[in-house]
């Protein structure tokens, strides 16, 4: 293996590890919460802009679920807890 091939292999390996370390908060649709409540909660819990939160709420409504935040588990855990406390249906995957 020449040096450039080895370097590319290591870069690919590091990128793969970085991707594996990413978790997601998935928000699920329900028949209880209003669009406004979901939008306000996403802004508060996930630091969404109002536009991002509105788009996510529409996707959840029509598709049944939507990834609303990605990142390290330690960052996502308190965010997901806020969403659950607000009555939303969400989980970290």
TrEMBL record:
UniProt-listed Gene3D superfamilies: 3.30.1390.10
Domain Adaptor protein ClpS core: from-to ranges: 21-85
UniProt keyword list: Hydrolase, Protease
Record carries keyword RNA-binding: no
GO function terms (MF aspect): peptidase activity
Domain of life: Bacteria
Pfam families: ClpS
InterPro entries: ClpS_core, Ribosomal_bL12_C/ClpS-like
One annotated GO biological process: proteolysis
UniProt KW Protease keyword: yes
Signal sequence region: none
Name of the protein described by the UniProt record: ATP-dependent Clp protease adaptor protein ClpS
